[in-house]
Fold each of these.
Amino acid sequence: MSYILICGMLLSILQSILFWKKEPGISVVIFVIAFLLGFLYLMNKYKKIENKKALILTVPIILLSLTYFIYHNSILQIMNTFVILILIIIMCIYATKLKIKVQDFFVEIINVLAGTLESISEVIDNLKKMLKKKEKSSESEKIEGMKKIFRSLVYAIPIIVIVFMLLMSADSIFANIFEGVIREFTNLFMAENFILLLLRICLIILFFFLFSSFFVNIIMKDSLFNSENEEKIIEVKIENMTINMILTILNIFYLIFSIIQFTSLFSRMNMSDFDYATYARQGFFQLMMISFINIVTIMIAKLNKENTSNYTKVMSILTLIFTMIILISAFFRMYLYEKAYGYTYLRLFVYYILATELLFILPIGLWIFGKKIDILKCTIGIVTIMYVILNFSNIESTIAKRNVDRYFENQEENEIDLTYLLKNTDIDAISEIKRLLNAKDPNVVRRVKEYLLEEKEKLQEINTSWQETNLSEINAKKELMNIN
């Protein structure tokens, strides 16, 4: 237990050093690697790793933490905080459990979160026991030790202060280095700074309990996460007739819908009198949602032990085929709309979601036919890989590049939504936005130049600490160096 508490304390101090009053940067990947090393050391020491293959999830976890250092996307940074936490929880579940059913997976996630809070009391109890043992065994030794420390301080402090003051007066560079340290130390005892110091200490203590209780919950035998609870198993039981009826009716609707797609959208896309962009605008979000519902319905039909008939399999495969047509239709509609009106965050996210759903088609099809596929692992793997690709695609730069390229294709006819581009992208897109200085429209050039000058001024005012180091910020400063 002492190893867990030491690891929890070191991590809580490290997070304070890296994140206190700091913007996320290289600090995130440093902390994540330190956390994983500490966690895996404890898991190995207490022999809790049952499945070493689960440790492959450390790769996407570290890659996602690297994005804080490489890019400057505030939206993905917020999302990644939760995704990294979820991936760590999933890694804990698969590393400690040899087998996990789809039905039990979400229950285990709740057990990790709830068990962490529940284990705080155990951490407190162990701290009390450790303190009591020390008090009983070394009461006399403590008194003698305190006397020795006091005598040492009486002799040492005057000498140290005299030598330090002499060095300060002897060398101006030495004095300048330590002048800031002395100022910071004295500022700690001012009213406002002293309150911040207390708050920082409180946060360190809070994170110590959170980290320690998390490790206790995952590692210790009697924790909520490791308790054997037969009631956790949830079985999906729906009558065979109900599933077949739902799948049959859905397939009839999808057949009609597919016929309409081939006759109205796919076959008429080259007709000049057909406003395909306006038509495409109708429904790609709805179609994306329908495809998701279909995949969930098929999975429920397969998980239901009562549904083993060939008719159910045939209906599931038909639903899967129609789902693929719906996904292609939604993808094609989005492409037509984006081609006419340009790229945005939402439109790019839709592409990734649709592509992710399309990747599910093959493993689900094989799963329906009884192939030995762990559909839960498959789902986690596909979603994780696609999410990592999304993070490393540099979304803001991609949005700016596609919109600028589209504008330069035909500057007389194509318009560029500068308001959206300048308000919804950050320094990741600076190099692409800078290209608009070559536009023919003087209003576009003027607005872009004003924006670039504002960004240059903001970046010059920022005093970045080493914890906040960000490659995108460094590159943006280089790009804006010659903007006057």
Amino acid sequence: MNKTILITGSSTGIGRSTAFKFQKEGWNVIATMRTPEKETELKELDNVLVTRLDVQDLESIDSAITAGIEKFGKIDALLNNAGYGLMGTFESASRESVQRQFDVNVFGLFDVTRAMLPHFRANKNGVIMNVSSVGGRITFPLISLYHSTKFAVEGYSESLHYEMAPLGIKVKLIEPGAIATDFGSRSMDFQHDESLTDYNEFVGTVMGKFSDLMNPELASKPELVADVIFQAATDGTDTLRYVAGPDAEQFLAARKQMDDAGFVGMMKGNLGL
């Protein structure tokens, strides 16, 4: 029997590339998204179920899991990929914006995982893969809230890794660097109140440097991340963290080698601060 993966956030970027990767490798794929009616290509592929799942809608989570099990009989792997970035000065972000950032990136991930665990426990098997970020282990200015959610995912996943091991369930973290997706537009919410003039020069400097750092021509392709995710799902090891992208590898290597002052100084220099 072919193995089956459920993927959240399959409409674009990493989630979409991962759906194509697993289908090509012979897996059944439950490709979930908020608006499945807009999807065309994935619906044409064999062994792919495109269905609705909004991580903020508990009923849609349960329905997607049920539909996947009914169609394919069993789910072997879960990829928690859905998420977005809230960027800008912290003081400019409304409480509602902060709440939504955590609702999607953290509590939504929790809810999908919780809903999947009874099935994995019954099978005494399963792989939970959570898409974190290099930004779950290092930080950039103006992304304090996004970083907070990814640091939360890192801590949650590392602790859950112990908890699930006796049940035959593996937990994996996927840590991409800059990826050539639409994260900088569709999946990034930038908020800065320019009336808070004390920040304006700083914001201008940082955003100018980000334009260079996030150059799509220099970023890794989402297919690279999909390959790393496939490795995590199939290598059979208890490895916790999988770094995706040369920039992520470089940043994390530098962070490991430097103390706080050295690393922060390097980052300030890179950003012209």
Amino acid sequence: MAKFKQAADIKVGVVGYGGAFNMGRHHLNEMKQAGMTPVAVCEIDPVRLAAATADFPGIETYPGVNEMLAASKANLVTIITPHNTHADIALRCLNAGKSVVCEKPLAITTEECDAMMAAAKANKCVISTYHNRHWDGCILKALEVIGSGAIGEVFRIDARMGGFGKPGDWWRSSKSISGGILYDWGVHLLEYGLQIFKGEKIEEVTGVSQTGYWAPQTAWKKDTNEDEAMALVRFKSGKYLSLCISNLNAFPSGKMLEIRGTLGGYAFDGRTWELTTFKAPGEKVVVSGNNPPSEGHKLYQNIADHLVKGEKLIITGEWARRPIHILDLADQSVRKRCALKASYT
């Protein structure tokens, strides 16, 4: 889908320049590193608009999305706003002829993802998600080791994160805004698992959760995220993937991902990895090490190369919809108390 002669012709803007993690500045700098040209910032907070001007002298600033779409020449917009706003803002941008990158998660429901993808197709635009962790050193190392055959055929992946403690009093702890406890880091962990299980077709998803303990102690009260939630993904091959995010975990030991194979296992967190194999029954060999550096900058480089050179887009709408479909089905499964068949495998 080559649309531009050179990366500098891709004029980029961001919606959202909030102070948390300075993500607006981060995104614009990564796009600039990929050769694209930052031109616009949209933000409802005047203080943050002033910060954007200080970070990028001369950049256009807008207090609202419609104003930016009407006046800015940006042709690629990255959305860095709360999860429940992604679909609405993305649809406005896409229908205005702008390509879109959403901070993860792409959206909260499968239906929202479908609408965004349909709008991108109708307007001949790109829709992608900021799955920069697709290139994390920990998953790149895992794929290398698993690809070598060291642990045999992988049949199970367990992904988990959390501890015991009250969630923060911010929008990420509100279920109606965030989507639920699984939607923040859970999307990253699911994507790791789907990279490992590449080519496997999803058959069904089961969800369970525990709610109510932390809610009275938080700003969101009845709208607070689940205390703990789990999703179990069963693939058509019989392989399976579990995800658990918890604020009620009294035993937060072990690695972030544990991958089980017929000849051993591989586990990793953000910094380290551990490989367990068996020379003979009962003869266990354990080696460990540090993960290589992450290469998250490759996301925007790939988008630039896709728009300029027509190279294959790696984080497509279809790829980004997969973890959202899993989380959407898990949430529905909690309410219906049964496993649900996947529409998108």
